[in-house]
Design goal:
By secondary structure, this protein is mainly alpha-helical. The protein has 2 domains: 110 residues, Winged helix-like DNA-binding domain superfamily/Winged helix DNA-binding domain (Arc Repressor Mutant, subunit A, Orthogonal Bundle); 155 residues, Up-down Bundle (Four Helix Bundle (Hemerythrin (Met), subunit A)). Strands 1-2 form a two-stranded antiparallel sheet. β1 and β2 form a beta hairpin. The longest helix is centred in the last third of the chain and has 26 residues.
Amino acid sequence: MRQPLQAPSPARRPTQLGRLMDVRGVLGGAVQALGKRIVAGEWKPGEGLPTESEFMAELGVGRSVVREAVRILNAKGLVRSRPMDGTRVQPRAEWRLVDPDIIQWRIEAADRRTLFDDLLHARLALEPGVAWAATASKDETARARVDAAWRAKIAPSQATDAPEAQREKFIETDLEFHRALLAAAGSETLQQFFAVIEAALALSLDVQMQAKGSVTTVTGMDESNELHRRVYEAFARGDSEGAQDAMRALIRSAMTDASEGLSRIG
């Protein structure tokens, strides 16, 4: 017998795009429970979901809650309801994969390897161009933000904080460095995309550090900082091509580290 519906997990840090619908309480718990199970593959694409009555009994909620939960999952592209055919799981190509809830469910449903691989390939396609555009920018305010982000990024490696605090600062300053480059590139669309995937990227960075043998320490910071240094130095001297090439090398290294890290931690 499946476990009864659990209380919804604590609210995550809001993103610029936000979720399609921010729901809490019984409805939020139903949406999370069903969404995570769909993402985990409990029902395959094209397969019909149980009836409303079955979900009502299993989740311990009313019919209106089940119907509203299915409507929200429909808006996220996970399911499609049709008269006389019931509610069926949609092909993965129909899912709103950059929806923050779906990203979170993929993390919780042990879909991290494919999620990280997907996101890192997206970064490989996008971020070298971001580095090129940021380097070519004449916006002094945006360039100053990149300078400040770089100084903050190298600070954790020189700090004497406890390893856990260093790791947290390292991950946050890494994300801010990439945010600053995106701001300098001048694309609000890409800034919002990055905001949506930040939670997964933070976890990916932690996994990359574990690939270097770091679990409670800060192993791997020096190597990461060196890769970022090459991006920053090209940016600082106005070498757009050099910044683009350095960013491409950085993301390729991240792909290798994430793969090794996932293998290490199972």
